[in-house]
Amino acid sequence: MYMCGIIGYIGLKKASPILLKGLKNLEYRGYDSAGMAVLSSNGIEFRKGAGKIEEIERRLNFEELEGSIGIAHNRWATHGDVNDINAHPHFDCSKTIAIVHNGIIENYKELKESLSDHNFESETDSEVIAHLIEEELERGLSFEKAFMSAVSKLDGNYAILAIKADEEKILTARRGSPLVVGIADHGIFLSSDIPSFLEWTKKVVYLQDYDVVVVDRNGIRIHNLIEGEVSRPIDTVEWDAEQVKKGGFEHYMLKEIIEQTETIQRAIQQDEDVVKRIAEEIRRAYGTFFVGCGSSYHACLAGSYLFSKLAKTHVNVVLASEFENYEHFLTENTLVFAVSQSGETADVLEAVRTAKRKGSRVIGIVNRMGSSLTRESDQFLLMNAGPEICVLSTKTYTSQVALMTLLAYALLERHEECVEKFKELYMDIYNLTSRSMRDYLKRLAEMLADKEHIYLIGRGLQYATALEGALKIKEVSYIHAEAFAGGELKHGPLALIEKGTPVIVFVSKENEERILSNASEVKARGGFIIGISAERHEIFDYWIKVPECGDLNPIVQIIPIQILAYQLAVLRGLDPDKPRNLAKSVTVI
Ligand code: F6R
């Protein structure tokens, strides 16, 4: 479920340069630490450390590792700090077994307790896997049997690679986390993603959940923990170099929309104590501001509804470019949340400096570690969404909203409950970004591609979603899109509705009656109603089904509009990744 990149190689060539290149191609999956273990005549040799791969490769000299069998890992921390010890690979007590792991081992605490006589070095959940294998080996099992037995004890998600001194093989298992085999002339690859080995081969075998694979110099053997011995077909991928970087997708925008299954989960993996302390600061503050631009501002607005309705806490939402007008209200007791994906937006940084001049405390909500906002704020929460290459914010928007939700729940001292709610969202997001959903929205896009105007309406939290939806549509398809609070229609915008005018209506259980009544005002004037809701209503001309998720509606309801905006751009022959006149980080005021 959580992103990290893993890669293994067994073959005729020296493994370390191949693995290093693979890690660089997998960097989009995580980049706070990296490491590598290689089988050599002296047993297992390894290097690992915290930092981006291009920073640590000079320090760690990965390529000094000799040997033609090895495994490697890019980390994106979930359990344990970012430091050298928590970087993968992890080992058993005698360092004869090395493992790398992508995922979360949910029962690692119980497993660790059952291994109390083992010497654990790191704070990670992953290390337990190496010690489990060691324990099984001590019972007299072979490496393969010990690995299989260890894997069958794991709850959660995993893609694991394991090597053992004196055994010329790599063992691997997957459940929930991606893992694919690459078959080249000179060797076999095991990796989280195809781009890591595409330079060497286009022949791939996609592994399935519960597959346990033995890869040695004779080839691969697959045993599925449920089905027994299985064979899986060899496919050939046809990608060009550009697509490779995009993980096989035509555009970064689509790739990043789809990544939300994982990025939303990662956003809420925050240190609970830190979140609690921030909640305490909000309680104590004399005035709290949420400040951002564009999509980040919309996330702030969604946050303000959540704070108000859930936590009964008032916050001021201000566009960063307008913040100076509120300067007089800033004191040493004011708390300012500066929300920015890039952490480089000039208007946001200006607002931060204004706040700091007044002695107010600034907390950044930011995606890019090392950005100006991480340096200039007093404290920051990272969205952990991974690099967002498309100019439009998609996955970073939902990460921002997820963090706002987490803070609102923290104010109610219901952190755990919030985390559980998000976990339950996993399959919903997966379904909302599925191919069938994308095809369904493409049909809608075909109906809308020639329209001059699209309007969006919502109430409460759904008004923030409507604003964000309108921004997505207009900036990528260049169709004029505008959002209104449902109740505002009769105060002017209704004059815009004529026969066939498309209006997207965001419906939630809470305000169903009132927003449907707004929709009927539109329908009565000939409007074409596109409903986004859990249930179909008669008034809809087109229905986009989304689950009813209460406080989490802003996350599930925006995803179809992100996809619709993408499809509109593609149908109109535009490059969704690079809309005209726009830049990813707006570093000018
Ligand atoms: C919209 C979009 C922009 C950004 C805005 C703020 O898709 O990407 O509206 O949200 O420029 O950028 P950050 O979050 O980097 O401060």
Could you say how many structural domains there are in total?
3
Number of helices: 19
How many strands in all? 25
| Secondary-structure-derived class | alpha/beta
- Percent of residues in beta strands: 15-25%
What is the general shape?
Answer: globular
Output the CATH topology of the largest domain. Glutamine Phosphoribosylpyrophosphate, subunit 1, domain 1
Oligomer: single chain
CATH class of the largest domain: Alpha Beta
Distance between the termini: 39 Å
CATH architecture group name of the largest domain: 4-Layer Sandwich
Keywords for this entry:
single chain, 589 residues, alpha/beta, Glutamine Phosphoribosylpyrophosphate, subunit 1, domain 1, Rossmann fold, eight-stranded antiparallel sheet, seven-stranded antiparallel sheet, 35% helix, 24% strand, globular, binds fructose -6-phosphate
What does this protein look like?
This protein has about 600 residues and is an alpha/beta fold. It contains 19 helices and 25 strands. Strands 3-2-4-1-10-9-11-15 form an eight-stranded antiparallel β-sheet, with helices on one face. A seven-stranded antiparallel β-sheet has the order 5-6-7-8-12-13-14. Strands 17-16-18-19-20 form a five-stranded parallel β-sheet, with helices on both faces. The site of fructose -6-phosphate has 15 residues, from helix 10 and helix 17.
